[in-house]
Amino acid sequence: MARDLAIVLNNGSLNSAVATALAAQKYRTVMVYVEASEKTPARWRWAFEQQTAFFKPYRDVTVAMPFLGGLKPAVAAWAALADRRQGGMIAPQLLALLPIMAVGASYAAQYEAAAVYCGMRVGGGADDLARATEYFQILTELLQMPCGQIDTEFVTPLLELEPWQVVDVGCQVGAPLEKGWSCLEDVPDPCWSCAGCRAREAAFQQAARPDPLRPVRR
Q1: Residue 9 β-bridge partners
Q2: Do residues 20 and 8 lie in contact, with contact meaning Cβ atoms separated by under 8 Å?
Q3: Dist CA 60 CA 42 (whole Å)
Q4: Dmax over Cα atoms in the chain, in whole Å?
């Protein structure tokens, strides 16, 4: 394969939409969705399919990893991959993300991809940002040296951004923000009352951008 491919770990979230748009500016994409548990909200998968229809990637892949459902932080970690909707301490989330990062690395080797994109965001908090930055640096070194993938790296373009900055970047790069799912409830339409919906609403307000999923209030 040519080295113009990038693997994008995408869970259907708003941050995944923005990270995929950034990856698509430089590479043809292979979008990967991990079915981490039978209890994973169906709306996450629906949002992923909406994004694949928009981006038209070189390949889109779903990986079933139901064994992760037996690990308490697994589903929360999959959410954390894109926007830490579940909150909590970062170290356990990073630990739970290891098998998902391994999936990205494996597909990178299979397709001889130049990068593995991950939409995780931790913001500007010094300690969490330092931990997450070191985590992805170590993963890149592990992939490049002992695994022999010397031209492949993990890329986290949203890592230090605040939520409103993600919205702003998404608008600048034409990301399909209306196809990014933020609600924590498995419902047809956003509930606008859960933590995910409230955080999304605050982010769009701070960015002074209209949310395409939010009806205009008169």
Answers
A1: 32, 118
A2: yes
A3: 17
A4: 59
Measured distance CA(75)–CA(152) in Å, rounded: 27
Does 215 map to a domain?
no
Per-residue pLDDT at 125 = 80
Sheet containing 5-9, strands listed edge to edge, beginning at the edge strand earlier in sequence: 59-64, 28-35, 5-9, 115-118, 153-155
13 domain residue, yes or no: yes
Helix (H, G, I), strand (E, B) or coil at 119: coil
Please tell me the predicted confidence (pLDDT) of residue 7.
98
The helix/strand/coil state of 143 is helix
Q: Is 98 helix (H, G, I), strand (E, B) or coil?
A: helix
Mean per-residue pLDDT, 126-147: 94
Q: Is the model's pLDDT at 88 over the cut of 90?
A: no
Q: Which domain holds residue 69?
A: 5-206
Q: Can you tell me the distance from the alpha carbon of 27 to that of 24, in angstroms, rounded to the nearest whole number?
A: 5
Total count of domains within the chain: 1
pTM (two decimals): 0.90
